[in-house]
Backbone:
């Protein structure tokens, strides 16, 4: 445990301190109307195929009914051989995966070994369980390590499941239909990519919270192929004209230059030891 | 995820389940279904593993909140392995059950998880223990748990006999799970069974379509 968690060494056993804090927070808002965080309203999917794992995601981030980001990246880097798709609260998935990635890098440097997918899953499970569902992160972790190709799902309460194919997010049921129909064990690379693309496409077509482009990430023993975007939205509009103004568009009538007189008041020298 | 979580008391994924354990002549059978649900209307996993090995000859079945149960079992596995290193011998089945009981009892306000522990040890042979939601620990010859267990109390009371053979006990367990899965909406999938004896551990998985069929099916 000292190998990976540098900033926080959790006390052994269960720690339910946050339940008291959560109860107090709920009491602060009268009527129980807590402010709603921005959710990614997403379709993400993952499939294990013969030589590795394919992860896919849409690229729309919504803030209620407005599309806040048309090209948001939902497939996060965890380690050179492990990537993670995140659904739920955008800030939570971003920070949780960043924290996990940092801890795994420290672990790699300390132990001299590449991280295993199951280790990433365990660290995530411990952290999300400790926060009792208050971190709204639904994650699909996929990766290839010395023990094989793995795909895991981690829920916000800290429950873990190891699966051959999976979809999450608001468009998960639409994508799951495609996956249930088309999945076979030991698919080749191209059919696997096509299956994930079709699953995300179903999510985009049938869910209002998902849309725009499709990102695909293929992880194999040889390396990672992060294709962003794999498929662009067919409904992309082109800008009708250029909105940049040439220098000289606005004529200059008069020009006045006033030099500022500066004098040195105080000088301090700080020695730096670079031995 | 709001559309999935409705008014189920368990927040997040629940194992809403059927689990059972029974002692036969020379060993013990422990088994469960494989469905994980959210809110009583969405099956979040058809193939979740609820029978977890906590030591060489000791297995546990989980019921209740999946997150809580997985976290408790993780802690229990660590404690048992440490205990076994300190004692320089395999732990007794009651040790595994006690570790689970301790965690469930001390954190009863925050946890929603119950367990069945079954195994074989040199001192007392095959044993089955139940750790309920609040942290009660009792030992029984045969026991069932989870939401689907209500439908098979009659079957278990009528059909269980002490000192059955391994095959009879396996058939009894398969039938019981099949009956419960047939009536309980939050139990289903495949039947996971594990047979633990002095000689070793044997996994039996019965896919949904190979389960015994009863009248009206």
Residues:
């Amino acid at each position: 445990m000292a190998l990976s968690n540098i900033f926080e060494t959790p006390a052994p056993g269960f720690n339910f301190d946050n339940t008291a804090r959560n109860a107090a927070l709920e009491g602060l808002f009268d009527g129980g109307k807590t402010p709603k965080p921005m959710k990614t309203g997403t379709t993400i999917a993952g499939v294990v195929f013969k030589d590795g794992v394919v992860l896919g995601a849409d690229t729309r981030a919504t803030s209620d009914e407005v599309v806040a980001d048309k090209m948001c990246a939902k497939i996060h880097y965890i380690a050179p051989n492990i990537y993670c798709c995140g659904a739920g609260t955008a800030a939570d998935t971003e920070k949780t995966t960043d924290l996990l990635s940092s801890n795994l890098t420290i672990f790699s440097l300390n132990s001299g070994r590449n991280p295993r997918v199951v280790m990433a899953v365990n660290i995530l499970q411990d952290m999300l369980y400790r926060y009792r569902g208050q971190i709204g992160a639904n994650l699909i972790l996929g990766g290839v390590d010395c023990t094989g190709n793995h795909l895991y799902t981690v829920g916000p309460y800290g429950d873990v499941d190891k699966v051959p194919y999976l979809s999450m997010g608001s468009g998960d049921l639409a994508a799951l239909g495609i996956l249930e129909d088309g999945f076979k064990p030991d698919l080749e690379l191209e059919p696997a990519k096509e299956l994930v693309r079709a699953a995300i496409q179903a999510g985009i077509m049938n869910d209002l919270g998902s849309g725009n482009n499709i990102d695909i990430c293929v992880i194999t023993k040889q390396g990672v192929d992060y294709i962003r975007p794999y498929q662009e939205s067919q409904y992309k509009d082109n800008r009708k004209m250029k909105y940049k103004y040439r220098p000289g568009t606005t004529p200059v009538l008069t020009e006045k230059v006033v030099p500022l007189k500066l004098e040195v008041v105080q000088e301090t020298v700080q020695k730096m030891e670079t031995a | 995820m709001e559309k999935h979580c409705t008014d189920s008391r368990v927040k997040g994924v629940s194992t809403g389940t059927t689990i059972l354990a029974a002692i036969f002549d020379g060993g013990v059978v422990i088994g469960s279904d494989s469905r994980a649900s959210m809110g009583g209307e969405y099956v979040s996993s058809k193939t979740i593993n609820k029978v977890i090995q906590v030591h060489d000859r000791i297995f546990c079945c989980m019921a209740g909140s999946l997150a809580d149960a997985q976290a408790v079992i993780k802690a229990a596995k660590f404690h048992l392995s440490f205990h076994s290193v300190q004692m320089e011998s395999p732990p007794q089945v009651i040790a595994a059950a006690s570790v689970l009981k301790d965690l469930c009892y001390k954190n009863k306000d925050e946890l929603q998880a119950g367990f069945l522990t079954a195994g074989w040890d040199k001192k007392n042979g095959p044993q089955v223990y139940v750790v309920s939601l609040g942290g009660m620990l009792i030992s029984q010859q045969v026991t069932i748990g989870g939401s689907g267990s209500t439908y098979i109390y009659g079957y278990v009371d009528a059909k269980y006999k002490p000192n059955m053979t391994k095959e009879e006990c396996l058939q009894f367990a398969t039938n019981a799970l099949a009956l419960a899965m047939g009536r309980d909406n939050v139990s289903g999938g495949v039947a996971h069974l594990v047979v633990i004896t002095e000689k070793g551990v044997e996994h039996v998985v019965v896919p949904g379509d190979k389960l015994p069929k009863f009248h009206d099916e």
Summary: Chain A touches chain B at residues 13-14, 16, 19, 88, 125, 128-129, 132-133, 138, 155-161, 163 (CB under 8 Å).
